[in-house]
User: Fold Delta(3,5)-Delta(2,4)-dienoyl-CoA isomerase-like protein from Hapsidospora chrysogenum.
Amino acid sequence: MSTATPLPAYNGYEYFVVSSPAEGVAHVEINRPKKLNAFSQPVWLEFGRVFDKLSADADVRAVVLSGAGDRAFTAGLDVQAGSQDGHIFGAETDVARKAKGLRAHIEEFQGSIGAMEKCEKPVICVLHGVSLGLAIDIACCADIRICASNTRFAVKEVDIGIPADIGTLARLPKIVGSHSWVKDVCMTARDFSATEAREVGFVSRVLGSKAEAVGAAVQLASLLAEKSPVAVQGTKELINYGRDHGTVDSLRYTAVWNSVVVQSEDIVKGLTSGLTKTKPKYAKL
Assistant:
């Protein structure tokens, strides 16, 4: 893996470090290692802003996400910050008014984490070490998930008295295809290993260490960055649409989408490169 270079456009973030380890690749690191990269409200709001910016950045074609340090991808919600959350423990006593405020608070949290799923660029999530609670919500928003062999997974929300509410319960069953397994881990809050995560299809690869997993992710992101951004970003959009819609609607959407895409210069470059045995170079999107 090549040495990462800072991306000046992303220097202003407090909780995330964004660098470029390869051309067209952005590496986002959750940067609270002393807190096991746990999330408070300022962290999740910044997370959303980072991925909104990456989505619009034509210089970025693929993204890798990991946590700073070796101990954790993220331990989930910052419990100390959560215990002081005025939305939950505020003085408002009217049930309807408190519920309205809480609903807006949860939707804000969902939207910030969901910004990674909505990001137009493919995102590879590298899980390692402690990966609990919100870690699963975040990983479910990624396009590709790989992990280190020491990763400790758990959907922990039941142990703090709530169903998971930031996306795991909606997305995880569609990822692994086994409601039995999903209910097992989500209702018991038990730990599961990297091996189990791969067996059920939650992750596609397990590497020996965090460094190896990040290296593999950067290598994969570099390959994606060489492809037509029109094709790669369109593929992400169409797969996600198909996940959430029926076959007839998905085929209709694909036809409309590709009626535009087949007119792109990228298809000419792709076809020509196949005939001439040369490597195409695609313009930014």
Observations:
- The chain has twelve helices and ten strands.
- The longest helix spans residues 95-118.
- Residues 229-276 form a domain with the Lyase 2-enoyl-coa Hydratase; Chain  A, domain 2 fold (CATH 1.10.12.10).
- The chain has a mean pLDDT of 95.
